[in-house]
Design brief:
By secondary structure, this protein is an alpha/beta fold. It has 16 helices and 15 strands. The protein has an eight-stranded mixed sheet with strand order 8-7-10-11-12-13-15-14. A five-stranded parallel sheet has the order 2-3-4-1-5. A two-stranded antiparallel sheet has the order 6-9.
Length: 416
Amino acid sequence: MRIERTKYLDQLVGKMHSNQAKIVTGVRRCGKSYLVFQIFKDYLLSRGVAPEQIFEMAFDQYGNRRYRDADEFYSLVTSSLVSPEMHYVLLDEVQLLEHFEEILIDLIARDNVDVYVTGSNARLLSKDIVTEFRGRGDEIRMSPLSFSEFMTTYDGDLAAGWQSYLMYGGLPAVALEKEAKGKADYLQGLFNEIYINDIVERNGVRNERALGELLDVMASTIGSLTNPNKLSDTFHSVTHSTIDPDTVSSYITYFDDAFLLERAQRYDVRGKRYIGAPYKYYFSDLGLRNARLGFRQFEETHLMENAIYNELRRRGYAVDVGDVTVSERDGLGKSVRKRLEVDFVCNHGSERTYIQSAYDIPDANKLAQEQRSLLKTGDSFRKAIVVGRPIERHYTEEGVLLVSIFDFMLDEDALR
């Protein structure tokens, strides 16, 4: 079954012939290669591009290992670019190519070459490479399947599909696998055979066991405020071994570089400034998170919050954790300062939306609790509560939008 990744194809098409290298990044197995080598290639052929105008190279294939050498590859690719027609160079896992930055700069400088590459780690976007490209690299960040994409593959009702999505995530190969055991085996195999090995090899990690155990600790605490010091303490209490905060910080950077985790910073809404640590961390794919824990910790409230975060990032929002400080009177009449949390402060250009994630709102007391921080922001930006069960989309008397998780995940305009 073919899964159309229309959003990403549209981005590629919109950037064609831009004199920049189009760099598709994302976690391993999220569909980058399929996007470039199947969906985008089919688009080119359907628009009359001749097969000989398309050059392809997958550097992670064993048969192509000789072309990871810069001189070998450069000789091969340039020999195919002799005709004056536009040529489309498609390169998979380009970080495996020696001196790929210099070669890409050479290629995109040619008038008849349009370059598209994939990569699975943030080395493609490091400060050194950004400087080297001097604005000539254009990133397209790809995610696992959104819930709406997932449902095009799912043979069942919406509620059952949502439970499957929360449990097994949105990696395309997992979505297409029909049996639960097959899904679980695939996800656990990815960690055992690919993700951890990649991180260890790329970063020269000496203590692979500690790296994996830290990832387990972080998988157990999604949606919780934390920092390297706190994680170090938690690691010690859970594993009865020691890992210092500096090492924790380094390992988190490795997870982030591999697109496994993403950090949400705290933002003082009323003070209009970033606060710093502690932060929240979310997994790029829930199936990967659950596989890391042996599918034993299925807390729907936290998984739903992670899914909302991923969807907001997929839609292009910058997402922070909101902090709202208020002064209230205690039982003795004394003024007490309290900090309230807004789950997500979402910014897109000049547009801002505050969002709370609530598994259920059974009564007025729960509604008041969920609205409280939203109503204390002191501004008139859009405010919404995403509820984890089917409800009719409506506004409260205070002007806060209530929308079901299904409407939110399936309709990008559900908050408007």
